[in-house]
Amino acid sequence: MVRLSDLPGPVGGFLGNLPMPEFDSTPWTDAPPLSEARVAIVSTAGLHRRDDRKFRGGASDYRLIPSDIDYADLAMSHVSVNFDRTGYQQDVNIAFPLEHLHTLAANGEIGSVGEWHYSFMGATAPEQFAESGAEVGRLLKDDGVTAAVLIPI
Amino acid sequence: MPFELGRPLGAPNDPEFQLDVLRSALALLERESGPVLEDYPHDAPASGGEPWACPVALPGGEAGGQEARLLREIDLLRPWYEEASRTRGRSAVGLSGIGDVDTMGSFIAGFVSGEPGTPPDGASEEMPFLLRFISDDLKAFYQEAATAQPGRASTSEALNDWLYKETTLGEVLYDLRDRLAASEDPREKATSGGLIPLTYAQRP
Questions:
Q1: In the structure, what pLDDT confidence band is assigned to residue A135 with cuts at 50, 70 and 90?
Q2: Sign of the Cα pseudo-torsion (B174, B176, B177, B181, in order)
Q3: Chain A residues near residue B151 by CB distance under 8 angstroms
Q4: Cβ of A85 and B35 within 8 Å?
Q5: Interchain proximity A54–B35, CB inside 8 Å
Q6: So what's the pLDDT on residue A21?
Q7: What is the C-alpha to C-alpha distance for residues A126 and B124, in angstroms, rounded to an integer?
Q8: Which helix (H) or strand (E) holds A138?
Q9: Is the pLDDT of residue B48 over 70?
Q10: How far apart are CA B191 and CA B172, in angstroms?
């Protein structure tokens, strides 16, 4: 996440004034050793397979991205224009580092890569993701995933 | 990850840096207590090489109609767009479903000039949402072409300054935004906000 002080005035002002959520508790669980972890990506970049449904404003659902996806089959339909897309145009790994996860797994640095990864469209109010977020949590668990990399855009 | 929005792993085409960011994030899982809130300690590396410049000189100026000037730009950029697609094996162009970039250009310029806006063949969306995806496709076409030349140190600021301040496409996008913003159709009005970043909201 960019430093607010590095954002141009109108963007920084908008993000800086968003209300911060408050939580009643601070859940914590011990993670398995990285070398045994099964890792998946959860992105808010509005990514999806090219022939999947595009995101619309206010979307709180998610798209499924298989672990063997060819980057040529990946599209981004995030509704916000207030983030850079030129990095993603040149190199998908800057926003969705699936190739790097496979590299870490091949090196034995992580145990394995999840079969599926998930993408939301992050311009929606966070509380609206409660249902779909819980569903993705269940799906990750079903896949045996023990660590998720949450990557904002 | 203290990087600009849109670049959560720091810098494109720098796999070693990206891997270090990813390893650092994963290493947080090994902490024995939490919550853990920690900044990645390095800024994104500056791109090396020659300063960025568009590989082709675009004509500029006001001569000729807007649609003709837009199509001329597309024509000049096309070889570099194709080179970018070839070397990267992919392109971000394609959201609109309209396969032909000339068709996108003619459609969007025609709509700006007052034509009714009947979606071209293949369009994946209805109006006015289609306009947003066409604008995304055209921006991607331009900026993928503009970054096709290896060894050029492009930054997002340079690429966006160029697109919004120096190209006919930028001019068309401002005109499109203004036409949609003036519409009484709430869907068109809403679409006007999805074309130009806040940073570039003021027309140059």
A1: very high
A2: positive
A3: none
A4: no
A5: no
A6: 79
A7: 28
A8: helix A130-142
A9: no
A10: 15
